[in-house]
Amino acid sequence: MAANRSSSADRRARIEQMRKAERARERRTRVITLSLSGAVVAGLVGFGAYVLNEESKEKQQQEAAAKAPIKDEKTWDAKTLGREHVTQTVAYPMKPPVGGDHHQVWMDCDGTVYKEPVPEVNAVHSLEHGAVWVTYNDKAPKDAVEALEKKVSRTPYTMMSPVKDQAGAIMLSAWGKQVTVDDADDPRVNQFFTKYVQGPQTPEPGAACTGGLNGMTKK
C-alpha cells in the first residue's frame, strides 16, 4: 500500500511539473506575441509617419514650384487674348498659339498624344479649359519626344502634337504662357506642368478635356 501511495504521489508531482512547464510556455508565447505585435504596430506607425512626411514634402515642393517663376517663360496679358467662338481660321500672333478666339469644339486633352498636327483653333479651346499643350518640331531629339509622350499620356489635362514650323525644338504652352526647352529632362518641364495644368491662368477651370475633337474627325 505504501508503495502504491508513493507511486501515485510521484505521478501527481510529474503532472504538476508538466502543468507548470506548459503554463511557462504559454506565458513565453504571450510575451513573444505581444512583443511582435508591438513591433509591428510601431513599424506601421513609423512607416505611416514616414509616408505622411514624404507626402507633405512633395506637396510643399509642388507648392513652391507653382509659385516660383519659370526661367525664360513668355507671358501674354490674358485680357488681350480673345475668347470668342469662331468658325473661321484665326491668325494667331504666336506659334503655337497660347490663347485667342477659337473654335467652339476643343481638342481632346485627357493625356492625349497626337502623331499629326492638330487644328490650332481647337487646341486653343483646350488651353482655355486648363490644358498644357506640348509641341515639337523635327529638331526635337527622338528620345525626348518619346519621354514627353509618356509624361503626357499619364497626365490629365495635357496633350501633345507636332508643330513643324515652330521656333523651338520643344515648346510648352498654356493659356497666356509659353516656354521653350531643348530636352525632356529640363526641370522647367515638370515646373510648367505643376504650375499650369488646371492652373490659375485657366479661364474655364474644371471644363471638360474629353468629348471634343479627337484628331480622327473633322472640325
UniProtKB/TrEMBL annotation:
Top-rank taxon, per record: Bacteria
Query: Membrane: is it a keyword of this entry?
Result: yes
Give the stretches traversing the membrane. Answer: 31-52
Provide this UniProt record's keywords sorted from A to Z: Membrane, Transmembrane, Transmembrane helix
Query: Keyword Transmembrane helix: yes or no?
Result: yes
Under Pfam families, the record lists: DUF3105
Note the InterPro entries from the entry. DUF3105
| Region feature Disordered, mapped onto this chain | 1-26
Where composition is biased (Basic and acidic residues), the residues are: 8-25
Query: What's the protein called, per UniProt?
Result: DUF3105 domain-containing protein
Task: Recall the taxonomic lineage recorded for the source organism.
Answer: Bacteria, Bacillati, Actinomycetota, Actinomycetes, Kitasatosporales
